[in-house]
Design goal:
The chain is α/β, with parallel strands linked by helices. It folds into three domains: about 5-260, 2-enoyl-CoA Hydratase, Chain A, domain 1; about 295-470, Rossmann fold; about 480-690, N-(1-d-carboxylethyl)-l-norvaline Dehydrogenase, domain 2 (Orthogonal Bundle), CATH 1.10.1040.50. It contains 28 helices and 19 strands. The strands form four sheets. It has an eight-stranded mixed sheet, sandwiched between helices. Helix 1 links the parallel strand 2 (about 10-15) and strand 3. The protein is globular, with a radius of gyration of 29 Å. About 50% of the residues are buried. The structure holds 3-hydroxybutanoyl-coenzyme A (3HC) and 1,4-dihydronicotinamide adenine dinucleotide.
Length: about 700
C-alpha cells in the first residue's frame, strides 16, 4: 500500500504511505490519483485532505526512480499535481515533519495548506544538481514572493513552517501539539462550499523592478556556484514566474529540469546522496544489532589528532578525558582545544556560551585510573607499534569490561593491536582525518575479531559525531591512505619526468581537487610520508618511489609547519610560493638519475593521478576491504577533497567508461615505472563485461 484512502463524514483523507519519507514513486502517485478520482466520484465527499503517514508529509519525488522509466510512467508527478489542481472539490494539504521537493510542489497544487509547527519546508532539488521540476519554481514565488522563494530554491535550505505562518503559503499553522488531521478535516468542513476554488497558479508575482533584482541574483549566484549549473538555472526558472504566463513558465521549468537531470554534475550529486546513506549499512550487521551506550569517552595522546578527536566528543555533549604521559604535552593539548574553540567563536560560528560548555566537558589526566570507567577510549599516540602495544596492554588492564577500545592508527595492523589485549572483540579502528574536529570522514576499521555490536556502536557514534562513517577492512593504509599512496607515487614520478609541483597542483586543482598533492603534502607534513616510506623500504623493497620527496625532507622542508616544503612560505602566511631551491633540486635529480625531462600534458597528470586511485580502489574492492564502490567514493569525497561534481574516483571512472580507463592504464604500463600500472583484475573483468564499479 502506498497511499491509504478513508472517508470520515463528508471528507476523504488520502494518506501517502511510502516509508521512510513518502517519496512520490510510481505506486504512491498512482494510489494518490486513484484516491482523488474516488473522492470526486463519491457524492458524499465534499472535500479532500492529503497527508503523509509516519515521519513525513513527503520527502519529494522518489530519487531512486530518476533516469528510470518509472519516473516518466503515468501518472507522473505532473499528472498527479494536475489532477489535484483541477479537482472540482477543495483539496487541503495537511503538512507535518518533512515537506520537500515534489512533496511541497504537490502541496502547492492543493487549494489550501495547513501545517503543524516544526514542519521542514524546502525545495532542496538544487542540492541534487537539479531544480524543482513539478511547478515549484512557478508556484512558490506566487505565495512567498520573488525574493523569499528565490532564496529557498537557490539554497535548498529548509524553513520551519511556523516561520512561514502569515504568508500565503499557509492557510493555517496549528498550535503545538494539536491534532493535524483533525484540524485539517475541520478546516475542510469550513471551506467545502467556497467557490471559486483558490489556485496558486491564478496568483501573480508582483515585484517592482524585478529585472534589476534578477540580474543582481544572477551575478551573485554565478559567482558562488562553481562548477554546478543548477543554481543559475534555478534563478532563470524563478525569473520565468514573473516574466512568463504560468503555463509557459511551467514548460520552461520542465526544459531546464530535463537538461539538469541528465547532467554529469547532478548524477554525481545523487550518487553522493545515496552513497552517504548506504555507507552506514553493513550486510552482516543488521539495523537492529544492539549498540553499546557511549556516555563518556577518553582519548590517549593529546597531540594533533588527540586534541581534535576530543573536541568531537565535546561537541556531541559527551564528556571526554585526555590522557598524556607528560604534564607539558597535556597542557599543550588542552590549550589547543581552548584556542580552537575561541577562534570558532571569533569567526561567529559558535556562541561563547556553547564554547564554554564544550571546554568544560574536556578534562586532562596523566593517570589511567581516571579513564578506566569511560565507555570508549580512542588511542591517538605515535604511529609506532611498540608504543601502541604498551598503550593497549595498559588499556586492557584498566578499562572496565565492555568498554570499546579504539585506535586512530593510519597504517598499522589493527588485528595485531587487538592481539595486545585479551578482548579483541572490543577493539576497532576509528580513523579520524586531520583536522579531526573539521573533517567529515571517519574510517571505521573492522578487525577480524571486532564484535558486531562494537561495529554497530561505532556506526551509531559516527552519526552522533556528525561524521560520515565508512567501514574498511584491515590492510596497510585502509581505504583512503592505501589509495593515496599510489597517487603520491605517480606525483613523484611526474616530478622526475618533467613536471614541477606547481604544474601538477594546478592541473589537479583545475580538475576540481580542493588541493593538489604537493600543497596537500605541505599542509599535512611531508615528514609523515617520509616515515611511512622508510618503513616500506624495509618491508616492501620491491615497491619503487621517486626519491624527490626524501631529498626534500633531508633539506628539513616538512611543509607549512617548518615554513618550507615543496613551496616557500612567508612567515605567518599560507600562500604557497614556487621555490627556486626545490625546483632546482627536482631538475638536478632528473639529471642524476638520467631521465630526460619532457613536457607533460595536464591531461596526463590528471589521468595518472586519478587512475592510480581507481586501480588501487578496484583492488580494495575486490579484496573486500571496501564493501562497495560507493564507500570508496565517500572516503574520497569527505576525506581527500575529491571534486564532488565528479562523484568520487570510482564513479568518475564509471562516467569515463572502464574500457577507456583500462586502455589508458595499459598505455602507462608500457612507460616508465610500468610496474606500478598492472591493471587490477576487477577493472579488467568489469571493463570486459561492459559494467561499471557502481552498477
Ligand atoms: N526519495 C527516495 N528516498 C528518499 C528520499 C527521496 N526523495 N529522501 C530520503 N530518502 C530515503 C533515504 O535514502 C534514506 O533511505 P534508507 O533509510 O534506506 O537509507 C531514508 O529516506 C532516510 O533518509 P535520511 O537518512 O536522509 O533521513 P533524515 O531523517 O536525516 O532526512 C530528509 C530526511 C530530510 C527527507 C532527507 O533524506 C532529504 O533531504 N532527502 C532528500 C529530499 C529531496 O531532495 N527531495 C527532492 C527530491 S527531487 C524532487 O522532488 C524532484 C521534483 O522537483 C520533480
Ligand atoms: P602527535 O605526535 O601530534 O601526537 C601524539 C601524542 O601522543 C603526543 O602528544 C605524545 O606526547 C602522546 N603520546 C605518545 N606516547 C604516549 C603514551 N604512551 N601515552 C599517552 N600519550 C602518548 O601525533 P598525531 O599526528 O596526533 O598522530 C597520532 C596518531 O594518529 C597516529 O597513530 C597517527 O598515525 C594517527 N593519525 C594522524 C593523522 C595526522 O594527519 N597527523 C591523521 C590520521 C591519523
Amino acid at each position: 500500500m502506498s497511499a491509504a484512502y478513508e472517508v470520515g463524514g463528508s471528507v476523504a483523507v488520502i494518506t501517502l504511505n511510502n516509508p521512510p519519507v513518502n517519496g512520490l514513486g510510481l505506486a504512491t502517485r498512482t494510489a494518490a490519483v486513484d484516491g482523488i478520482r474516488q473522492a470526486l466520484a463519491d457524492d458524499a465527499v465534499t472535500a479532500i485532505v492529503i497527508t503523509g503517514a509516519g515521519k513525513a508529509f513527503s520527502g519529494g519525488a522518489d530519487i531512486k526512480e530518476f533516469n528510470s522509466p518509472k519516473a516518466l510512467t503515468e501518472p507522473t508527478l505532473h499528472t498527479l499535481i494536475n489532477v489535484v489542481e483541477s479537482s472540482t472539490k477543495p483539496v487541503i494539504a495537511a503538512i507535518h515533519s518533512v515537506c520537500m521537493g515534489g512533496g511541497l510542489e504537490l502541496a502547492l497544487g492543493c487549494n489550501y495548506r495547513i501545517a503543524s509547527p516544526g514542519a521542514q519546508m524546502a525545495l532542496p532539488e538544487v542540492k541534487l544538481g537539479i531544480l524543482p521540476g513539478a511547478g515549484g519554481t512557478q508556484r512558490l514565488p506566487r505565495v512567498l514572493g520573488l525574493e523569499m522563494a528565490l532564496n529557498m530554491i537557490v539554497s535548498g535550505t529548509p524553513v520551519a513552517s511556523e516561520k512561514l505562518a502569515g504568508t500565503t503559503l499557509f492557510d493555517e499553522v496549528t498550535a503545538p501539539g494539536a491534532d493535524l488531521r483533525a484540524a485539517a478535516v475541520a478546516f475542510a468542513g469550513k471551506v467545502a462550499d467556497v467557490r471559486p476554488l483558490p489556485r496558486v497558479r491564478d496568483r501573480q508575482v508582483d515585484y517592482p523592478n524585478h529585472e534589476a533584482f534578477l540580474q543582481f541574483s544572477r551575478n551573485t549566484v554565478k559567482a558562488m556556484s562553481g562548477p554546478f549549473p543548477a543554481p543559475l538555472l534555478c534563478v532563470e526558472a524563478v525569473a520565468a514566474s514573473v516574466t512568463k504566463k504560468f503555463d509557459d513558465g511551467l514548460k520552461f521549468e520542465r526544459e531546464l529540469f530535463m537538461q539538469l537531470v541528465q547532467s554529469a554534475e547532478s548524477k554525481a550529486l545523487r550518487h553522493a546522496f545515496f552513497a552517504e546513506r548506504v555507507a552506514g549499512k553493513v550486510p552482516d550487521v543488521p539495523a537492529d544489532t544492539p549498540v553499546r551506550a557511549i556516555a563518556s569517552a577518553a582519548v590517549v595522546g593529546a597531540g594533533t589528532m588527540g586534541a581534535g578527536i576530543a573536541m568531537n566528543f565535546a561537541n556531541a555533549g559527551i564528556p571526554v578525558t585526555l590522557l598524556e604521559t607528560k604534564q607539558e604535552a597535556l597542557d599543550k593539548g588542552l590549550a589547543t582545544i581552548r584556542k580552537n574553540y575561541e577562534s570558532t567563536v571569533k569567526k561567529g560560528k559558535l556562541t561563547q556560551e556553547k564554547a564554554e560548555q564544550c571546554i568544560a566537558l574536556v578534562n586532562g589526566t596523566l593517570s589511567y585510573a581516571d579513564i578506566a570507567q569511560a565507555d570508549i577510549v580512542v588511542e591517538a599516540v605515535f604511529e609506532d607499534m611498540d608504543v601502541k602495544q604498551a598503550v593497549f596492554q595498559q588499556l586492557d588492564e584498566v578499562m572496565k569490561p565492555g568498554a570499546i577500545l579504539a585506535s586512530n592508527t593510519s597504517t598499522l595492523d589493527l588485528d595485531k593491536i587487538a592481539g595486545f589485549t585479551r578482548r579483541p572483540q572490543d577493539v576497532i579502528g576509528l580513523h579520524f582525518f586531520s583536522p579531526a574536529n573539521v573533517m567529515k570522514l571517519l574510517e571505521i576499521v573492522r578487525g577480524k575479531q571486532t564484535g558486531k555490536d562494537v561495529l554497530a556502536s561505532a556506526l551509531a557514534l559516527s552519526k552522533k559525531l556528525r561524521k560520515t562513517g565508512v567501514v574498511s577492512g584491515v590492510c596497510d593504509g585502509f581505504i583512503g591512505n592505501r589509495m593515496i599512496e599510489q597517487y603520491s607515487r605517480q606525483a613523484g614520478f611526474l616530478l622526475e619526468e618533467g613536471c614541477l609541483p606547481e604544474q601538477v597542483d594546478r592541473a589537479m586543482e583545475q580538475f576540481g581537487f580542493a588541493m593538489g598533492p604537493f600543497r596537500m603534502g605541505d599542509l599535512a607534513g611531508n615528514d609523515i610520508g617520509w616515515a611511512i616510506r622508510k618503513r616500506r623500504y624495509v618491508e616492501k623493497p620491491d615497491v619503487t618511489y621517486s626519491k624527490t620527496a626524501d631529498l626534500l625532507c633531508e633539506l628539513g622542508r616538512f611543509g607549512q609547519k617548518t615554513g618550507a616544503g615543496w613551496y616557500d612560505y612567508k612567515p605567518g602566511e599560507r600562500n604557497a610560493l614556487a621555490s627556486e631551491q626545490v625546483n632546482a633540486m627536482i631538475v638536478q635529480h632528473s639529471q642524476d638519475i638520467g631521465v630526460a625531462r619532457r613536457t607533460v600534458s595536464d591531461r596526463e597528470i590528471v589521468e595518472r593521478l586519478v587512475y592510480a586511485l581507481v586501480n588501487e580502489g578496484a583492488r580494495i574492492l575486490e579484496e573486500g576491504i571496501a564493501l562497495r564502490a560507493s564507500d570508496i567514493d565517500m572516503v574520497y569525497l569527505t576525506g581527500y577533497g575529491f571534486p564532488l561534481f565528479r562523484g568520487g574516483p570510482m564513479f568518475y571512472a564509471d562516467t569515463v567508461g572502464l574500457p577507456n580507463v583500462l586502455d589508458a592504464i595499459e598505455g602507462y604500463a608500457k612507460g616508465r615505472h610500468g610496474e606500478a600500472w598492472t591493471p587490477a583484475p576487477l577493472l579488467v573483468r568489469l571493463a570486459g563485461e561492459g559494467r561499471g564499479f557502481n552498477s
